[in-house]
Amino acid sequence: MPAAITDLFDNASPAIGPPGLAYAPDIITAAEEQALLAGLAGIEVTPFRFQGWLGKRLTASFGWRYDFDTARFDPADPIPDFLLPLREKAAGFAGLYRDDLVQALVVRYDPGAGIGWHRDRPLFEHVVGISLEAPATLRLRRRRERGFDRTALPLAPRSIYHLSGEVRHGWEHSIAAMAVRRWSVTFRSLSEKGLAAVAR
Ligand SMILES: O=C(O)CCC(=O)C(=O)O
Ligand SMILES: [Fe+2]
Question: 40: Cβ below 6 Å to ligand 1?
Fold first, then answer.
């Protein structure tokens, strides 16, 4: 394990390992990564939109789409077949049923693109992310009375992380812009709120 991850989960310093954060390298092989990248190259990704702004990162939603421009939550195209084995692995890693992971978000970060501090929308519950092509750093912070608690998780290509519980609800995360292209595939389950929204 890289030192930073060992530190994050070092029992001697539990304060810096937010509960609910899990990580594993090499969830897929290099050959599987290449096959996924070939599949992703055939997907139409469009600039993330937020209240009239166009973000630098390019995204595609499957299963369900949350539109940040309109705050609407709508059905989207089904998760493509070539992503289903990856969803199976994500569910196994997170201890979920594969059918719980009803959304797949594909993100392409070209050089200079990142994602700012945020919590994922409350319509979602579990967040399981796989990194492809290049490494990145998942930064985490939690507001304190003064300032923030901070930590960071290096994300190797072909690795997986799971955000649940405290780290998912009580902490924000972000990814700094990088110099090289990275892809991520994030699978999410619905929260009680999300399940109620889709039942309407
Ligand atoms: O690229 C990633 O791994 C993180 C994406 C993310 O945080 C999000 O889309 O909410
Ligand atoms: Fe996120």
Answer: no
